Each structure stands twice: as C-alpha cells, then as structure tokens.
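Pipeline run #58 for the internal structure catalog. This entry was flagged by the ingest filter as a single-chain record with no existing model, so it goes straight to prediction. Upstream metadata was stripped on purpose; only the residue string is passed forward. Reviewer on rotation: M.T. Logging verbosity set to normal.
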Amino acid sequence: MTNKIYGIFEGAYSDWNCIGYFENEEEAYRYCAETENKHDSPYVMEIERIDCEFSNETVFYEYQCSFKNNEMKWIHLESCSLYPKSPEISTHYGFVRLTFMIQKCDEELAKKIAYDLYAKWKYERGEKDVEVI
C-alpha cells in the first residue's frame, strides 16, 4: 500500500471543492481527463496518507446551536477535543446560542441535548413556557 492518495479538486482560492480521491495516481489523472467537461477544470493533488494508532481516550464533540422564539434555527459540529468543556449559553439580539460537548458524533442526539439544555436555561430564568422533549 502506498503512503499517498490522489485528491481530485476543482476551483481555486476560497471557491474550491474536493470531488474525491483515488489510491492510484494514474486513475486520478484519467478521471480528470474524462470528466473535464462535467467539472470546473479538475486537478490532482498528491496527499500524504495518515496511518496512525489512536489512543483509547474518549473524544468529545463540540456542537453549537441557536434558538429564537423557542425554535432551533441551526446546529452544527464545531470541533472535537480530548478535554471536555462545560456548556456555554449566550444571548444576542433575541437569539440564544448554546455550545456544548457530547461523547458521540451524532447530530440527532445533539439536537435532543440542545433542547434539554435550552429548556433548563429557560426554567432557571423563571420562564413559564418550558417544553422538554
């Protein structure tokens, strides 16, 4: 097995896209030649393959979400770490932003936890319209 992979990219500067990769350099260049009309001038970049042993330490996934008028507006995975942080809540222009960590990369679970944290926050503020999912 080679220590390289061959990424297929298109675009430039801040407007680029990774289409995929091949483990064989010749196949990567052939793909670019055959799909040149379908993509915006695809090109090959040789990339170092990373093979490593991971520790058994737990990874914590940091999610951020935003609520307005009791409705979640968005949620996304922000980062991950081996070190957990306490949840943070901030408000700005009517939005409530939550940042919290869980031990699983699972957006559906993160949504449920976000709603629970939001309900707890509202309850602690003395708000009456608290719903727990």
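catalog note: The two ends are 49 Å apart (CA to CA).
catalog note: Helices lie at 25-34, 107-124.
status: ready for reviewer M.T.
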